[in-house]
Amino acid sequence: MDGYRHTLAIPVRFADLDVLGHLNNAVYLTYLEQARIQYVQEVCGWSGDWTKLGMILAKMVIDFKLPVVYGDAVVVYTRCSRIGGKSFDLEYAMTRSQANGSPDTAAAATSVMVAYDYIRQTAIPVLETWRQAIAAYEPAFPK
């Protein structure tokens, strides 16, 4: 997908489906969380230690486009679209590919992430190292 460099393929498990056989709407959040955590690990160098790299989800908006069913190949594309003083936005495009088909956008989402000090339990300025890492990674990010 144009403008997205980070990708994560996620297998659709039978347990992820609702009674109608579609990916449960709550599971979309889990898939996006997986993509977000991997993005922060790969782009910002997060090791899993929340005392050294803290962020907290402040807002999530999901626009559901197409149903995902068991057997679909799902890929989540992630990019940073904005960095503010204490928060940054991540955009996601989740695609599904049905057997022998081309990928279609199943959902589009945006999250607002707040830089957060879990020890002091307060928002903090976005670290300069995050800004530099994201700017270096994102090809379309304003420099």
- Please tell me how large the radius of gyration is: 16 Å
Strand content: 35-45%
The percent range for helix content is 10-25%
User: Could you name the ranges where pLDDT drops below 50 across 5 or more consecutive residues?
Assistant: none
Describe the main β-sheet briefly: 6 strands, antiparallel
Specify the CATH class: Alpha Beta
Strand-pairing-aware structural class: alpha+beta
Q: What would the CATH topology be?
A: Thiol Ester Dehydrase, Chain A
End-to-end C-alpha gap: 21 Å
Could you say what the CATH architecture is?
Roll
Number of domains: 1
General shape: globular
Mean pLDDT: 92
Could you tell me the number of beta strands? 6
Give the name of the CATH superfamily: Hotdog Thioesterase
Total number of helical segments?
2
What string gives the helices and strands in order?
EHEEEEEH
